[in-house]
């Protein structure tokens, strides 16, 4: 087996049914590329790592890292990426919602030095977020995108994307400055250093989940909001304080309106 040109990092938790189909999908699209896939599993109780090890017995390009006592997507990605030696590192979710065919254009953009990072975007021409199963998930995603673009001035159409590829040299340079908490490592990677990255965006259709349950919920977005607030105050304090002031004013107006309704109800 030749040394891989790309290492694909898959942070996962309870994705046993998606392991084999994901490897098969990668085999279908990376036919002329030396690659490896590294599943970083947070000790899934459903036996995800057993499925990875079974495939690894016959497929030397499949690896697994089992983490015990450690949880979180961002830290899993960091651990998996730092275990890789390929010149390109890609990050994908383990739920088959990311379109693996995007990898071809990502690899080309990085190998030809047209970009430092390539991002699969749902929000450029040709992309779609139809795989977001309901309005609540779309609201959470769109709110995160708006906040990242406005508060941190991130030049991405989809800063909430979990599918990207980056030069290993860039990742290792920025790794000491990554927070390692939360679920949106792309944003953390973009703002880890002041030096801007050259970006290439690839249109992606975000597919429906076939198996398992989505990890995106209000608790995930709360952690994202905490990280966003911390970084916005550090990088753009004036704008951040203004945003907090507007939010506070909105809360105050809402509370006043609520109290007025309560007084009218009690007097009637």
Please mark out the parts with pLDDT under 50 across 5 or more consecutive residues, or reply none. 238-255
* Rg for CA atoms: 20 Å
Strand content: 5-15%
By DSSP, the count of extended strands is 7
Largest β sheet strand count, sense and barrel closure:
7 strands, mixed
Query: Into which percent range does the helicity of residues fall?
Result: 40-55%
Global outline: globular
What's the average pLDDT? 82
- Helix/strand/pairing category: alpha/beta
N-end to C-end Cα span: 81 Å
Provide a count of the helices: 9
Instruction: Going across the biggest sheet, name each strand in turn.
Output: 3-2-1-4-6-5-7
Account of the 3D structure:
The protein is α/β, with parallel strands linked by helices and 268 residues long. The chain contains nine helices and seven strands. The protein has helices at 16-29, 48-56, 73-82, 102-111, 135-152, 168-174, 185-191, 218-235, 237-267; strands at 6-12, 35-41, 62-66, 88-91, 117-121, 164-167, 199-203. A seven-stranded mixed beta sheet has the order 3-2-1-4-6-5-7, with helices on both faces. β1 (6-12), α1 (16-29) and β2 (35-41) form a beta-alpha-beta unit. It is globular and about 45 Å long.
Secondary structure elements and pairings:
Elements lengths: L5 E7 L3 H14 L5 E7 L6 H9 L5 E5 L6 H10 L5 E4 L10 H10 L5 E5 L13 H18 L11 E4 H7 L10 H7 L7 E5 L14 H18 L1 H31 L1
Parallel strand pairs: 1-2, 1-4, 2-3, 5-7
Antiparallel strand pairs: 4-6, 5-6
Q: Could you give a quick summary of the protein structure above?
A:
This protein is of the alpha/beta class. The chain has helices at 16-29, 48-56, 73-82, 102-111, 135-152, 168-174, 185-191, 218-235, 237-267, and strands at 6-12, 35-41, 62-66, 88-91, 117-121, 164-167, 199-203.
């Amino acid at each position: 087996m030749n040394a891989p040109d790309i290492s694909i990092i898959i942070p996962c938790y309870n994705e046993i049914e998606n392991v084999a189909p994901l490897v098969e999908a990668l085999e279908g699209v990376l036919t002329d590329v030396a690659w490896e896939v590294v599943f970083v599993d947070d000790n899934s109780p459903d036996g995800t790592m057993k499925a990875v090890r079974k495939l690894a017995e016959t497929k030397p390009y499949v690896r697994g890292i089992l983490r015990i006592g450690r949880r979180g997507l961002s830290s899993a990605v960091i651990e998996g990426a730092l275990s890789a030696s390929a010149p390109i590192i890609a990050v994908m979710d383990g739920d088959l919602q990311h379109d693996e065919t995007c990898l071809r254009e990502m690899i080309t953009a990085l190998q030809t030095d047209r970009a430092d990072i390539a991002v699969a975007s749902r929000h450029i021409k040709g992309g779609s977020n139809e795989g977001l199963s309901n309005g609540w998930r779309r609201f959470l995603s769109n709110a995160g995108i708006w906040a990242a673009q406005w508060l941190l001035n991130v030049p991405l159409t989809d800063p909430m994307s979990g599918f990207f590829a980056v030069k290993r040299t860039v990742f290792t340079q920025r790794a000491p400055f990554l927070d390692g908490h939360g679920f949106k490592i792309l944003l953390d990677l973009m703002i880890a250093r002041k030096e801007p990255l050259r970006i290439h965006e690839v249109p992606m259709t975000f597919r429906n989940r076939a198996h398992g349950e989505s990890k995106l919920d209000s608790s995930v977005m709360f952690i994202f909001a905490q990280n966003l607030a911390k970084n916005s105050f550090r990088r753009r304090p004036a704008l951040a304080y203004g945003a907090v002031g507007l939010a506070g004013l909105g809360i105050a107006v809402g509370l006043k309106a609520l109290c007025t309704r309560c007084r009218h109800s009690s007097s009637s």
